[in-house]
Design a protein that fits this description.
The chain is an alpha+beta fold. It has 5 helices and 9 strands. It has a single domain (about 1-244), classed as Transferase(Phosphotransferase), domain 1, CATH 1.10.510. Helix 2 runs antiparallel to helix 3 and helix 2 (about 55-80) crosses helix 4.
């Protein structure tokens, strides 16, 4: 496994992901703060204001939003190019607000895991973590996204909001599935197979039921609920288990 540093390793991946100079505008903070009690408290307070929701519902919706946008570059990077930007707290900056958009994510000093056979390895591109095969690449995805970031953050969220791990992790499974269904330009059967591979690597494959839609993309049925139906203006997501 070899390592280089630099934002150029992200070429060809999520164009909506900020990879320029570290933002200096007010409100940006390192994602590591969201692994602390004070950081999660600030984040949940913003969520309560954004959705005018009870604390547990605001926490569930904030987690759904955060886990989706955090996972998106890594998940689509694996699917489209077998290139996985490491979304560890030390590489991620976040900004959140009571107004839309609730959350913005940026990368600083990005490092991207790539296969040893990737043509980019033969270049002088900095910012590469070189791995031998796809199983190792999926392992890097899990360790950087889940073990180093989402799991410790989830533990802190659950200390401050009455939510089960299954409820929160169901939103991760749903978000990964929607990211691939909407963003992965491949035949539906390939999208479905890739979704199962990624969800299996993340330990979340049992939290959604997936099938191919006739019109393309994936039919996604959650086995958990994000609690949007508890908002002052109730919403029931199309994939929600309470519709089934």
């Amino acid at each position: 496994m070899g390592l280089r540093h630099g934002k150029e390793s992200l070429q060809g991946l999520s164009t909506g992901l900020s990879t320029g100079p570290v933002p200096h505008a007010p409100g940006w903070r390192g994602a590591a703060e969201l692994l602390t009690a004070e950081g999660v408290q600030d984040w949940l307070a913003a969520a309560e204001g954004r959705w005018s929701a009870q604390p547990h519902a605001a926490a569930a919706l904030a987690w759904k939003c955060y886990s989706y946008w955090l996972a998106l570059p890594a998940v689509l990077g694996f699917a489209e190019a077998r290139r996985v930007p490491l979304m560890t707290p030390d590489h991620v900056l976040v900004r959140f607000s009571e107004r839309q958009p609730f959350l913005t994510v940026a990368l600083r000093r990005p490092v991207t895991a790539v296969l040893a056979t990737d043509p980019i390895v033969a270049t002088d591109t900095p910012g590469l973590l070189i791995v031998e095969d796809e199983d190792e690449l999926l392992g890097v995805l899990r360790r950087s996204l889940v073990d180093a970031h989402l799991d410790p953050m989830l533990d802190e969220v659950r200390k401050q909001a009455r939510l089960s791990r299954r409820t929160l992790w169901g939103s991760v499974a749903s978000g990964v599935s929607y990211a691939l269904s909407r963003g992965f330009a491949a035949p539906p059967a390939t999208v479905l197979d890739t979704a199962h591979r990624v969800l299996g690597a993340l330990g979340a494959d049992d939290l959604v039921e997936l099938s191919v839609r006739e019109q393309g993309g994936l039919e996604i049925k959650r086995r958990t609920c994000c609690l949007a139906f508890t908002l002052p203006t109730p919403k029931v997501c199309t994939s929600c288990c309470i519709r089934q």
